Amino acid sequence: MPDVDVLVVGAGPAGSVAAWYAKEAAPNLDVVLLERDRAVGSPVRCAEGVGDAGLREFANPDGADWAARKITKVIFLAPDDTEVIVAERGVGWILDRTRFDAHLAAEAAAAGAEVLVGAEATGMSRNGDGRWHVRVKERGQDAVYCARVVIGADGVETMVGRWAGLDTRVPSRDMESCAQYVLQGIECDPDAIYLQFSEAIAPGGYAWIFPKAVGIANVGLGLVALKTDGRNARQYLDAWVDRRFPTAARTGYTVGGVIVHTTIKKTYADGVMVAGDAAHMINPLSGGGITNAMKAGRLAGNIAAAAICAGDTSERRLSAYHRAWMELLGEDHLKYYRIKHALESVDDDFFNKLARTVNKIPQHKRSIGRIFTHALIRHPQLIPVAARFFV
Amino acid sequence: MRRVTPDTIAVVDLAVCDRCGLCLPLCPPEAIHLELNVLTVDRAACTGCEKCVGPCPVGALAMVAYA
Q1: B7 touches chain A (CB under 8 A)
Q2: Could you tell me which residues are beta bridge partners of residue A149?
Q3: Which residues in A lie closer than 8 A to residue B10 (C-beta atoms)?
């Protein structure tokens, strides 16, 4: 039975960074990173957008083969297709997740962690010696890994959390159902991401165009099923793409869930920490989770290493992980969650009017903050909504 | 916990299912499993609440009579 110090389940951004930092913090620990799929980074279930500053804490995108496109503009589309361009400095990047995830796993491997692909954790139980016994299927063979600390970075399914007795369930209203095509031969600004908020196009969520190259983009949407007319996410997307890009070639598609909730109440147990999507560490307003996952992975990796070196992997000790996360981003997500629900009270007509008002501000003076202020001055009916943002 | 046999339960069409895992955390009794790239609904555990059906991005889940 392989005996390891840290077993990380899932080689997405949270898991790879957790393995990387655990090994770097304590090089003599045995750290193993499991990936269920045959290749790290595949299949891609992501729109691949990431903010510049958060990314740079972990990897340098300048000239990197995993960075598909630098983004310098955000274009909001009103429900009636009115464009509002917001230029900001160094907005972010569209990644090539297949390469990016492999890059992070390679960082973990370079630090000395062992990366195993095609290795699926299927269950785990607490052993009498205070370690976790994790059952793993690897190329048809059954193995049991004995681990002092298990880091669950297993995404939306979040089975490690479930096995550890944590409540990782998601209320229906907080699950966005997403569908996305890779479209080729489309006309859009290749330096801009486009976001469209509309009850008719993507009820409860938004639709996006994230360019990966000139003429090529991830085009998708996320919606809340409870707010739809009964069609599923893929059907909503087909309707939008048929209308907006009728001649484009659809060269790929993906679907998946984005949990637009707040961090689970408890992200740790004896010898267990849960990170990234698995712990609902997604910005509930934007649906962005990559940098959050990496930051949580860094915390989990560092805390796992310190706990093992101190000979104490108890729930009490690992609770420091939860506190550190909540202070870093978890508390902010509680605010974003309230903003998200406040925005549900505004309709398509309001967004159309707001777009026309904001377009009267010179483009170089437009920022998210100014748009917001403008919205309040010109549309006083928004003030009660705004008030709820900050309570 | 006492369980009343539901009139209908969820079933998955594996020809349509994309194995994205979205439905797993939506299931209150945790009756949906994804292992070795196959999604299964545990007939004995499904309570027929339908919470998994609407959110499936590709419509792979449906309710059928419990029989």
Answers
A1: no
A2: A6
A3: none
Would you list the DSSP string of A84-119?
EEEEEEEEEEEE-HHHHHHHHHHHHHHHT-EEEESE
**Does residue A81 contact residue A243 with C-beta atoms inside 8 Å?**
no
A157 and B25 within 8 Å at the Cβ level: the answer is yes
Contact between chains at A172 and B35 (C-beta distance less than 8 A)? no
ipTM over 0.90: yes
* Domains of chain B, residue spans: 8-65
Q: Do B58 and A232 touch (CB under 8 A)?
A: yes
Walking along chain A (391 residues) 10 residues at a time, the average pLDDT comes out as 96 98 98 97 95 96 97 92 80 96 98 97 92 94 97 97 97 97 97 94 96 98 96 98 97 97 98 98 94 98 98 98 98 90 82 85 77 67 56 41
Instruction: Of A101, A110, A120, give the one whose Cα is nearest residue A7.
Output: A120
Q: Which chain A positions have a beta carbon within 8 Å of B58's beta carbon?
A: 179, 232-234, 255
B8-65 architecture in CATH?
Answer: 2-Layer Sandwich (3.30)
Task: Give the three-state DSSP class for A388.
Answer: helix
Q: Please state, as a whole number, how many other Cβ atoms lie within 10 Å of the Cβ of residue B46.
A: 22
Contact at 8 Å (CB) between A29 and A6?
yes
Across A49-61, b (16+ Cβ under 10 Å) vs e yields bbbbebbeebbeb
Separation CA A274–CA A256 (nearest Å): 20
Out of A169, A175, A234, name the one closest to residue B28 (CB). A169
Question: What's the pTM?
Answer: 0.94
Q: Dihedral sign, CA of A292, A297, A299, A300?
A: positive
End-to-end CA distance of chain A, in Å?
52
List CB contacts (< 8 A) between A122 and chain B.
35
Residue A153 contacts B, CB cutoff 8 Å = no
In chain A the domains, ranked by start, together with CATH numbers, are 3-45+97-170+264-331 (3.50.50.60), 67-94+172-259 (3.30.9.10), 342-389 (no CATH)
Do B24 and A159 make contact, defined as CB atoms within 8 angstroms? yes
Pairing, β A67-77 against β A83-95: antiparallel
